[in-house]
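User: Could you check the structure of this?
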Amino acid sequence: MAEDIYREVDEELKAERMRAVARRYAGVAVAAVVAVVAGAGLWSWKLAQHKALDQAATGTYLAALRQTDHLPDQVGSGPITLVGKAQSGLEALQKLATSGDQGVATLARMQEAAVQAARGDAPAALAAWNAVQDNPAADPALRSIATLLWCQHQLDTGDIPTLRSRLSLLTGQGKAWNGLAVEALAVLDVREGHRDDARKKLSALVDSGETPAGVRNRAQDMMQALDPSAG
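Assistant: Sure, the predicted structure tokens are below.
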């Protein structure tokens, strides 16, 4: 159930290149696809907003982005080993993430998380997302998506109070990630056995005009699955 939620981030971001990347990584775990999708589209858009960024740092970031754009499919349960340009790109991102230019550093940290997720290193990806969401100097939009991805990646196993606390920061009318955050909270309700609470959240998503179509459709399916009279 939780894996289905991850597939909808690209619907929110709405960029053709992101959809292409999702197709390219069709064999990778869904959570990793989400991370790479975000890395391919949102970060490039945010980079265009930082016209005052140091050109050398920006050039290094874009080069690292290209180097890590094509990763081999994950095989087995452990992280895959990066070689050649991909490894060099990851190392460049990690170095940029600790640089003095806050804009490039945040973008690099987010792309580092995308790469780590794509290669199957969940702890490293979670640590990178956590570093962004805990950084008060980082761009608010990037902090929000880092929070969402950090939570989505561990809906089945993470500490529920912590997940609820962080997801609550993304909920509220007019907030970009409200639909996905409320949906994730409903999944946590189900995980804890609070089916009535889950149904209330899902019903609110179905009735809201702000809910993305994919989230609304899935909320309807989840409500039907939670209906004791169904089937």
